[in-house]
Design goal:
- The structure is a single chain.
- The chain is α/β, with parallel strands linked by helices.
- The chain is built from 14 helices and 19 strands.
- Strand 5 and strand 6 form a beta hairpin.
- Helix 10 packs antiparallel against helix 11 and helix 11 (about 425-435) crosses helix 13.
Length: about 475
């Protein structure tokens, strides 16, 4: 038997409160019929005894306290799923907005996903090639990993997200089963248009499923968008045997919506006003990445978040770092130098890359060349700090070599332009050419056998025209 409740006790922003309600569940969907016959959808977000709090998706405008009829539907929010969703664009709540009509569903699925047995998870291996040297070689993205990008206001994280979507690929044998689910939360109209236009112009739209939540859309939709995206990803991965890369941008907008929503419910705030359950809420999203035993597909996540005031200790990046397996940090100093993508090498890491690179995956020298580039670039920072005190002319010959290496590394390796797509072989060869600028005795992170095979100072001198002091600074950014 289905009951309708007439009237409401209270309206507060996007929330409505109802008393004397029995037999309802958390996250249950609700249909609210207004005085003029039109209806809005909502979901139960809080239950206290017989008092229920309902979050209304389209807002509470024109909702009356007296004549509103409320009907509980007895099921959580579901999204229609079919392989037809590839190439389609949806709103944050999963409604088609591309003018191509509705989805003819093979099944309906709860957007909150199914709980996974941790024992059934398979350890991630095999890398995803993004075509970006600083990511592929130094913070390699492994299939089934969750690897966030920490950015800041005004940084080119949107451009980086588009480049990853355009260039990301997996091994040749599985390439046809690779697709991307892209969810944008709280973006402006021009940014949403930029995403759609870029994917269409690059000809990759047929392998992308897009969820777009605009900044003027209801905040409830912002909290739903990543769950809809991940539900689609799980369906394509575990039921259609595809390898799915999920890009979520911007998770800061999601967390701000969560904070506003929590405040309107009257909950006691935690750090910086965010709800005390922010960690578990983010976990419920990030932990939906991985590989499941017996499944042929996988879900890989790249959440992108902007750090307020570039503060990596802010609750959003701080908690994200606890849950995920590393991070890619964009550096404002590199960005101001005109380097794109401005990946800060030293604070970035990928905790799973050690088991997804090397012989059989990328190349046998990947791990040593990566370790040596990290170590050498760290010494560059020491040399620069020393030079700022005593002057560059007073540095030792070795420190001057490190200064030269650092400049070449940033111009040739880190900077490559938004349309440059390097394969892993090209990236590793470039890394060796840069390391060959340094004296062989300084390369202490590489075995002698590997060093003898790949070190080539003559090739480095020829490639970078060493000795012509002006050439380094005169090269256009990203030039070879």
């Amino acid at each position: 038997m289905s009951l309708q409740y007439i009237g409401l006790n209270e309206i507060n922003g996007p929330l409505v409160f109802l008393d004397n309600v029995e037999d309802v569940g958390f996250e249950e969907m609700v249909e609210i019929t207004m005085e003029d016959g039109s209806s809005k959808m909502g979901r139960v977000v809080q239950i206290e005894g017989k008092k229920v709090v309902i979050q209304v998706f389209e807002g509470t405008n024109a909702v009356s306290l007296t004549n509103t009829k409320t009907k509980f539907l007895g099921k959580p929010m579901e999204i229609p799923l079919s392989k037809e969703i590839l190439g389609r664009t949806f709103s944050g709540s999963g409604k088609p907005i591309d003018g191509l009509g509705k989805i003819y569903a093979e099944k309906m699925a709860d957007i909150n996903g199914m709980p996974l047995n941790p024992v059934s998870r398979v350890y991630p291996r095999n890398y995803i090639n993004t075509g970006i040297s600083s990511i592929d070689s130094l913070t390699t993205l492994i299939r089934g990993q969750k690897l966030p990008i920490f950015s800041g206001s005004g940084m080119p994280h949107n451009e980086l997200a588009v480049q990853i979507v355009k260039q990301a690929k997996i091994s040749e044998g599985d390439g046809k089963n690779f697709a991307i689910v892209f969810a944008a939360m709280g973006v402006k109209n021009d940014v949403a248009d930029y995403f759609k236009r870029s994917f269409e112009e690059a000809g990759v739209m047929e392998k992308v499923v897009m969820f777009i939540n605009l900044s003027n859309d209801p905040i409830i939709e912002r909290t739903i968008a990543p769950r809809c995206a991940l539900t689609v990803a799980e369906y394509l991965a575990y039921e259609q045997d595809m390898h799915i890369l999920v890009i979520l941008t911007d998770m800061t907008s999601y967390c701000e919506a969560l904070r506003e929503f929590s405040s309107s419910k009257g909950e006691i705030p935690g750090r910086k006003g965010y709800p005390g359950y922010l960690y578990s809420d983010l976990s419920s999203l990030y932990e939906r990445a991985g590989i499941i035993e017996g499944a042929k597909g996988s879900v890989t996540q790249i959440p992108i978040l902007t750090m307020p005031n570039d503060d990596i200790t802010h609750p959003i990046p701080d908690l994200t770092g606890y849950i995920t397996e590393g991070q890619i940090v964009l550096d404002r100093d590199l960005h101001q130098k005109g380097i794109y993508p401005p990946v800060g090498v030293l604070p970035s890491l990928s905790r799973l890359m050690k088991d997804g690179i090397g012989a059989g995956y990328t190349r046998k020298d990947h791990s040593p060349v990566s370790n040596q580039l990290f170590a050498s670039y760290a010494k560059v920072q020491d040399a620069r700090s020393l030079a700022s005190v005593i002057g560059e002319d007073e540095l030792s010959e070795v420190d001057k070599k490190y200064m030269e290496f650092g400049e070449l590394f940033e111009i040739h390796f880190l900077s490559q332009g938004p349309d440059s797509n390097r394969d892993i072989q090209e990236t590793l060869d470039l890394g060796w050419d840069l390391l060959s600028v340094l004296p062989k005795s300084e390369l202490d992170r590489v075995d002698t056998e590997v060093l003898e095979e790949f070190y080539n100072n003559e090739r480095a001198v020829s490639r970078f025209r060493l000795g012509e002091k002006t050439i380094i600074r005169e090269l256009s950014v990203g030039g070879e």
